[in-house]
Amino acid sequence: MTASSLAETSAAERTFAEKPAPRLNDADTLAQEIVEKLTYSIGKSVKRARLHDWLEATTLAVRDRIIDHWLVSSHETAETGAKRVCYLSMEFLIGRLLRDAIANLGLTQSVREALARYDVELDLVELLEPDAALGNGGLGRLAACFMESMASTGVPGFGYGIRYVHGFFRQEIVDGRQVELPETWLKHGNPWEFERRESAYEIGFGGKVSMLDEAGKPPRQVWRPAERVLAVAYDTPVVGWRGEHVNTLRLWSAQSLDPILLDAFNAGDHIGALLESNKAEAITRVLYPADSHQAGQELRLRQEYFFSSASLQDIIRRHLRENETLSNLADKVAIQLNDTHPAVSVAELMRLLMDVHGMEWDEAWTITRATFSYTNHTLLPEALETWPIHLFERLLPRQMQIIYAINAVVMREATQGQGFDDTTISAISLIDEGNGRRVRMGQLAFVGSHAVNGVSALHTELMKETVFHDLHKLYPSRIENKTNGVTPRRWLFECNTGLASLIDETIGPGFRDEIGELKKLDGFANDAAFREKFAAVKRANKARLAALVEERLAIQLDPNAIFDIQVKRIHEYKRQLLNILETVALYEQIRSLPHLDWTPRVKIFAGKAAPSYVQAKEIIHLAGDVARVINSDPSVRNLLKVVFIPNYNVSLAEIIMPAADLSEQISTAGLEASGTGNMKFALNGALTIGTLDGANVEMLEHLGAENIFIFGLDADEVARMRREGHNGQSVIDRQPLLRSAIDSISAGVFCQEEPGRYASLMNSIRDRDWWMIAADFRAYWDTQRQLDMLWKKPDDWNKIAVHNTARMAWFSSDRSIREYAKDIWRAGPDA
Ligand code: 26V
């Protein structure tokens, strides 16, 4: 069997490999398998092999074992006719795969020993794997955690997305400013993926729609696209815990149908001959490096339609291979729309069912709604996708017709059924008439789905009150909550082996199979000897991070200090600026009152700004400027250090999360849909300082108020103050610490070479204070000082830290996936 046909499930193949011959998991066997790959797949001898060759050989050896399980999983799903879950996402922020795969297969020790025989260190080999960074932030990382959890909980899942040639940009800081460099994860090839040339689909753009009236057949609309490109599938296996189930992540790559226009080439137009091919391939060349702010460009819409159509054609083809009819599609497939990026799928599925497969409107519409469900990940108005109608119509004329027709159905339900007034009707409409006529993708995803979910309890309630207020009135049972989670395999077992082993020793290894057992750790918070060991693990993790910072930035960190960490995308609503202002205020206080017993702190920041987001880039620049001045001031040495670690990504997060004492989750309340970094930190024993926002609210419920440090305005108060026209200056006038910090930054204390650099950033706080930085400063400062006091009582601090790890099990993405499977998809082992 060739690599390109593995894990496909055609009837001919079903007889193959019911159960692969079991392999031995000892170091001898693995050493032999790895060396065999090294010799025969890579063509290197043990003597000559470089570390990179060992990475490839190890990956290929491990991959063979995954394939054994992959085939079995695929065949089982096909054989039993189990319902599949298709997760459509523009982003999968995967990170590295080797360590995850080895750990889930239970091979870590054997592989380590096998390589050690050749004086090769597994940890060093793992470091050479590039991060698959096919996502921006939370939404993409959630998709990756969900893929792993679907495999671990036995839900037959398919991830569908885009195989970007260039993932999320590499960030460098040059002269204090963020510089974006292209990321090239495929440079050395990608041993995890299988190209499936046989799974390729044509994707059309532009052209005309006409009515076809053939004798003896009902008249139907036919779309004749002006342009066509090919979507080619690349499959990556996603191995679940203990390797029991392996799912598929299928990413689409765009190719031109004609690689070269030979006529043009022969006529001497060598560049023109390649234009079409370049235009086609451009569709999957780069990931849009933004996580808010509507993209607006045609290429983005092309990307969205390209991967939606390819995925739906694939789903339909597979369905028809196993079923006689499409009438039972919704019984066999659930399709989750990860935000509105794949929302055009609603119109595309209708088109495929009606125009290609001859189904009537009513049946197609019923099936479409029963198949799709939609997750919303942000309420920020600037991130809600809409497309100009003229662009949509030009690129996707048939889909536009269908959207008008869907809109007519919804409008009818709203006027006839409910007697809604004109304002409500225009809020519900799929067409925004107010802004130069645009298609609203959120509305399309909502009406085309049977379930719509938010990602935390608070966010879901706010969806009902704000963006989907009127659609919620029309379809009151459609919105439900599914609080996010994170996979404990990557975010505890693999990234914090010290803590995971300590938990093994303390409560036994049962928590690795049933994460709920972590609760057994709770009682050990009162056991001094255990706390000592827990603190020792944290200290080792801090030392590891300190070594990284020393190596990359030549800054020494004191492990006795609180490691106070804020890592996430840089955005005004996430309020890195509030943290920086508190840092400056603390700096000034330490300098004015040096005799006080200050608690030493290290403030750590990391995160990327969207390339076009000016304020976010200024915030990065400011963090660096503040760091430079504070770190070189001998009067605060060892009491305060500030670092901005460049190029935050999944692999860096795996080192940072276990090393945190304090996790900063300080968004303006009502704006962070959930957060998932908050969960990773707390699971690894960090205390949280945070607002009543996103999943922090539920963390408060699970941890208890004494184990999380909540401050500031809540979402209702923020909304009220905004309505009443809050202004920052009035608050600043009453707060000398804040005023002095803002004045120092404005006056150029941290950027003497260009004193006006931050004037406008500071003025935005003095004027509108839209993000409530001035408004929340005092509460934030007070809570930080409370934490300073707590640090002086290590027993008390460590007790809280233990409670955090013990009580975070509910935030496992296995729990999220089981809820989706039961309530939305009606799929999985318990369906
Ligand atoms: C929007 C856009 C607009 C067009 C350009 C590209 C682009 C890319 C992404 C987005 C939406 C980003 C929304 C997002 O990442 N939300 C985060 O989702 C996390 C998982 O649910 C959640 O934990 C975070 O709170 C939320 O900010």
TrEMBL record:
It catalyses: [(1->4)-alpha-D-glucosyl](n) + phosphate = [(1->4)-alpha-D-glucosyl](n-1) + alpha-D-glucose 1-phosphate. One of its GO terms (biological process) is glycogen catabolic process. Transmembrane segments: none annotated. It comes from the Bacteria. The keyword Glycosyltransferase applies. One of its GO terms (cellular component) is cytoplasm. Belongs to the glycogen phosphorylase family. This is Alpha-1,4 glucan phosphorylase. It comes from Aureimonas pseudogalii.
